[in-house]
Amino acid sequence: MARVRVGLFVTCLVDLMRPRIGFAALKLLEGAGCEVIVPDTQTCCGQPAWNSGDAPGAVALAKKTIAEFEAFEYVVAPSGSCSDHIRTEYPVLLAEESEWLDRATALASRTYELTDFLVTVMKVDSVPGKHQGTVTYHDSCTGLRSMGIKQQPRALLAKLKGLELTEMNGCEECCGFGGTFSVKFGEISAAIAERKCENILASGAQAVVGGDLGCLLNIEGKLRRMGNESTQVLHVAELLAGED
């Protein structure tokens, strides 16, 4: 039986800040029976440019990404934010260019966030990770509201023996990151992050887990500035792959 060919979109933050998430995603996809290719010319999906009003830059990056990934059966990213940008915004960005619109729409239909792909497409029944302890899950805004990522990561975490999921209050509330929002509105972002971290600490969980590294970096930074050095902040791929 032929293996499913997947193009792994690593994302900028993973590549620059925590590459082990990319390796964890690779491990999970290969364990699910995929042939995984990581195009070495990939860069940014273009979301920061688009969110900042640089439409020409966003269009150029969209075309670059389409050309790099359209040969694969699926595109998978360990990020609801980046996968949503490819799936939702590329057809909007390229709406006035018929050839590129067709290519963007085709790629969008085959683009998935990692946990959604593992559950919905590959229907995995086991994961290699092991974890003893309690965790709480942060639902990232774009993944939750635009991609419908809610039960998928929890279904996979439930396959880890020894793991206890303790839901925090406000698990679906923003962490305050929002990409350039945290730069443009620093005081508001910090206040939102503090509320999120208070909910994490009140849950009593030993670790907070999420599916977008931007959120996790924001949360971890705030936890440490609040004096908390013990709560682990993990990407769901790290936990599932046993790379935590």
Short description:
The protein is α/β, with parallel strands linked by helices and 244 residues long.
Q: Any overview of this molecule?
A:
- This protein has 244 residues and is of the alpha/beta class.
- It has two domains: 4-121, Rossmann fold (3-Layer(aba) Sandwich), CATH 3.40.50; 133-241, Rossmann fold, CATH 3.40.50.
- It is built from 13 helices and eight strands.
- The chain has helices at residues 12-17, 20-31, 47-51, 55-69, 80-93, 98-108, 114-121, 141-145, 151-157, 181-184, 186-203, 213-225, 236-241; strands at 4-8, 34-37, 74-77, 111-113, 133-137, 163-165, 207-210, 232-235.
- Strands 2-1-3-4 form a four-stranded parallel sheet, with helices on both faces. A four-stranded parallel sheet has the order 6-5-7-8.
- β7, α12 and β8 form a beta-alpha-beta unit.
- α5 (80-93) runs antiparallel to α6 (98-108), α7 (114-121) packs across α9 (151-157) and α11 (186-203) packs across α12.
- The radius of gyration is 18 Å and the shape is globular.
- The chain starts with a strand and ends with a helix.
